[in-house]
């Protein structure tokens, strides 16, 4: 197996973790993406059954959970 990364990523990763931490960093990044993909599938399945989430209800929950403004994290 071979993996191709951009030159930018190849420079940035060692700057973040040092030369000896690159493999562990890439493993963690891959695991995070796998978890995110699985979560995306769960959300899509939920939406098929229940319909999409109400944006106002999501904003209200976000305020309760974060104690912040309703649009906090909307750009994330």
What is the average of the pLDDT values?
90
Quaternary organisation: single chain
Q: Shape, please?
A: elongated
Beta-strand residue percentage: under 5%
For the sheet with most strands, the description reads: none
Show unreliable segments.
none
Helix and strand run = HHH
Task: Output the keywords.
76 residues, mainly alpha, 3 helices, 0% strand, elongated
Describe what you observe in this structure.
This protein is mainly alpha-helical. Helix content is about 70%, strand content about 0%. The longest helix is centred in the middle third of the chain and has 29 residues. The chain is elongated, with a radius of gyration of 18 Å.
Summarize the helices and strands and which ones pair or pack.
Blueprint: H1 7-17, H2 22-50, H3 55-66
Short description, anyone?
The chain has 76 residues and is mainly alpha-helical. It has helices spanning 7-17, 22-50, 55-66.
